Amino acid sequence: MFELYESQRAMRNMRKAAMQRGVVAVLDVGSSKIACLVLRFDGTERGADSGVGSLAGQAGFRVIGAATTRSRGVRFGEIAAMSETERAIRTAVQAAQKMAGIRVDHVIACFSGAEPRSYGLDGKVSIDGAMVTEQDVARVLSACDVPDVGHGREVLHAQPVNFALDHRSGLSDPRGQIGRELTCDMHMLTVNAQAIQNLAHCVKRCDLELAGIASSAYVSGVAALVEDEQELGAACIDMGGGATGVSIFMKKHMIYGDTVPMGGDHVTGDISMGLQIPMAMAERIKTFYGGVHATGMDDREMIEISGDTGDWHHDRRQVSRAELIGIMRPRVEEILEEVRACLDAAGFEHLPSQQIVLTGAASQIPGLDGLASRILGSQVRLGRPMRVHGLPQAVTGPGFASAVGMCLFAAHPQDEWWDFEIPAERYAPRSIMKAMKWFRDNW
Amino acid sequence: MRSVGAAPNRAPAGRAARVQAYRSDPAPSRMKYRLERLMLTPLFRFTLRFGLPFLIGVGGASWYFSVDSNREAFVGAVMSVRDQIESRPEFRVDLMAIDGASEGVAADVREILSLDFPLSSFDLDLDEMRGIVTGLDAVKSASLRIKQGGVLEVSIVERVPVVLWRGVRGLELLDETGVLVGPAGKRAEHADLPIVAGTGAETAIPEALELFAAAAPLEGKLRGLERIGARRWDVVLDGGQRILLPEKGAVQALERAMAMDGAVDMLSRDIAAVDLRLAQRPTLRLNHDAAQEYWRIKSFETGEKR
């Protein structure tokens, strides 16, 4: 059984090993498509300690393989049919490997579902006027009181977002400073354990090693939000096929993440049901003629709905574009209302800047930004992922925000709880590790 | 799957929908996926592309040659092809032409090479043959080449004898560097050549030649040079007269003797030897009668009674 929390440290080491070898794959397991990118790390900009490197952290790697395949067996961002998903992952990985011309062994995966829940934790530790060491940071992180996350939940992200030393808050790195009391705020995201286990099992069945797991709401925020938006506060809304991810960023850290289990597939389903046409046709007319604002012109624009039922009248129907928009709009509004509820629950209105960035494939509906600004607030823009080296033109659209975000996440991960050393007092008493640690610290 | 579910209600649509539903999945099978990953492994690919053909080639060849009859057949085939090529008229050598050699030397060359024409040019080792030809005393250098038309051309530069050497094997001819050219036969056959003798004479031929040049004023009186103790020369004149030359500066000493001869006609007197080995003290050795006469005259001068 795959125990996520226990394996986070191992996955971090595996990611480092993969970067040493130079090749790692990122896998975006979505409800409508599965994207796989193969990254090559060329060793430049390794060990750039100072905050932002050149090109905002996009240097140092290059996309050498990219493949997308229709997703099978994934619903609401969670794996519903293992073998079908496994085959879809195999398809994507094989095509990306073929394009890269190199074998990939390590993969970093992201998914959008599994009911993520955010928790804000804080911890406090006394350091008696000494200099803050790495050990103190580890102590204050372990001093955070973990709430009861519920049975069958796993911690996916646990990122320290803020440190405070005595009365000074907003420190990103307290090491080396002198104070009496160190406090830290941490953001923790928990997800359903079963979803992660299913994903890990699928990846393992494809002969790949899982070198990291991320929430797609988080990574699409990394890709779609520009630097000042991440700094000042912004929400990224990743409208995918089966789920819509919401993530709020502040001071370059995610402070809230959630998922609305509705997306573009539900819009397609509404069209399919409303117009009595197959899903493939519904998807087609949605992408060609879809919209959310009906105008007088749309009443006159008739869309041919062909079919192969054999019934002449059934196969020769026509609908106006206004009708189509009339079907789509309530569902899109419903999704945005749900997102609004998420943002309200997170206290988004208290942030200094309330920029909202819509990304994801479903954000390409024409007129969506106008509708979203009516529901979510005035500062809405459509976001596309950043450009990274070697990314093919076909995967630069907003639907690939999470895949591109995974690249940045792979190259420059944020510190997580498990990246710090385990504080000495947390070791089991009389363990050999404790003795070794004492020796290492004192000599 | 949806279409399949709807099929019983709408029978005509069922087949088409089912076809759509069972559209083949583009996913590779597990075996194919693993095989492709294996093929993308660099080491494996290298092994497959270079290691395997190499192994098959070497293995096949060694299996073939492990059978004796195969090996013999192969060697036989190679040899027959080789024979066919070698026996072509383009590579045949019919005769040998010797340039720059006197008749005797040419005969010697023919004898020691002992070639049995016609031959294939592949059978001739020109370097080795050149070594044999230059091994002859009379040959200074030789060059061999096979000319168009199957002619083996041997160009020889002969040694020119400049000195006769009277050694333990009788009279022999030496060239200007002291290398043996050949036996001389009789002295009369080489009347124009000066003669040297003594142990180690052949090692100092260049100096001997200089001495002969310096002794030109003596003309007919000169009999030859003799090497004494393998280190210095004596000039031997007719009548047994000798000029003893020093080890170093022999030519200057001889020139000096020539000057003395020109001045006082020294050598035509009754003198056994002129000793010039000590440059600051030239010494004359008189013959017995001359010495007696000299002492008698001296006694007159001094009034000594005898």
Automatic annotation (TrEMBL), chain A:
<protein>
    <recommendedName>
        <fullName>Cell division protein FtsA</fullName>
    </recommendedName>
</protein>
<dbReference type="Pfam" id="PF14450">
    <property type="entry name" value="FtsA"/>
</dbReference>
<keyword id="KW-1003">Cell membrane</keyword>
<dbReference type="Pfam" id="PF02491">
    <property type="entry name" value="SHS2_FTSA"/>
</dbReference>
<comment type="subunit">
    <text>Self-interacts. Interacts with FtsZ.</text>
</comment>
<comment type="function">
    <text>Cell division protein that is involved in the assembly of the Z ring. May serve as a membrane anchor for the Z ring.</text>
</comment>
<dbReference type="GO" id="GO:0032153">
    <property type="term" value="C:cell division site"/>
</dbReference>
<keyword id="KW-0132">Cell division</keyword>
<dbReference type="InterPro" id="IPR043129">
    <property type="entry name" value="ATPase_NBD"/>
</dbReference>
<dbReference type="GO" id="GO:0043093">
    <property type="term" value="P:FtsZ-dependent cytokinesis"/>
</dbReference>
<keyword id="KW-0472">Membrane</keyword>
<dbReference type="GO" id="GO:0009898">
    <property type="term" value="C:cytoplasmic side of plasma membrane"/>
</dbReference>
<dbReference type="InterPro" id="IPR050696">
    <property type="entry name" value="FtsA/MreB"/>
</dbReference>
<dbReference type="InterPro" id="IPR003494">
    <property type="entry name" value="SHS2_FtsA"/>
</dbReference>
<feature type="domain" description="SHS2">
    <location>
        <begin position="24"/>
        <end position="224"/>
    </location>
</feature>
<keyword id="KW-0131">Cell cycle</keyword>
<comment type="similarity">
    <text>Belongs to the FtsA/MreB family.</text>
</comment>
<dbReference type="InterPro" id="IPR020823">
    <property type="entry name" value="Cell_div_FtsA"/>
</dbReference>
UniProtKB/TrEMBL annotation, chain B:
<keyword id="KW-0997">Cell inner membrane</keyword>
<dbReference type="GO" id="GO:0043093">
    <property type="term" value="P:FtsZ-dependent cytokinesis"/>
</dbReference>
<dbReference type="InterPro" id="IPR034746">
    <property type="entry name" value="POTRA"/>
</dbReference>
<feature type="domain" description="POTRA">
    <location>
        <begin position="91"/>
        <end position="159"/>
    </location>
</feature>
<dbReference type="InterPro" id="IPR005548">
    <property type="entry name" value="Cell_div_FtsQ/DivIB_C"/>
</dbReference>
<dbReference type="GO" id="GO:0032153">
    <property type="term" value="C:cell division site"/>
</dbReference>
<keyword id="KW-0131">Cell cycle</keyword>
<keyword id="KW-1003">Cell membrane</keyword>
<dbReference type="Pfam" id="PF03799">
    <property type="entry name" value="FtsQ_DivIB_C"/>
</dbReference>
<dbReference type="InterPro" id="IPR045335">
    <property type="entry name" value="FtsQ_C_sf"/>
</dbReference>
<keyword id="KW-0472">Membrane</keyword>
<keyword id="KW-0132">Cell division</keyword>
<dbReference type="InterPro" id="IPR026579">
    <property type="entry name" value="FtsQ"/>
</dbReference>
<comment type="function">
    <text>Essential cell division protein.</text>
</comment>
<comment type="similarity">
    <text>Belongs to the FtsQ/DivIB family. FtsQ subfamily.</text>
</comment>
<dbReference type="GO" id="GO:0090529">
    <property type="term" value="P:cell septum assembly"/>
</dbReference>
<keyword id="KW-1133">Transmembrane helix</keyword>
<keyword id="KW-0812">Transmembrane</keyword>
<protein>
    <recommendedName>
        <fullName>Cell division protein FtsQ</fullName>
    </recommendedName>
</protein>
<dbReference type="GO" id="GO:0005886">
    <property type="term" value="C:plasma membrane"/>
</dbReference>
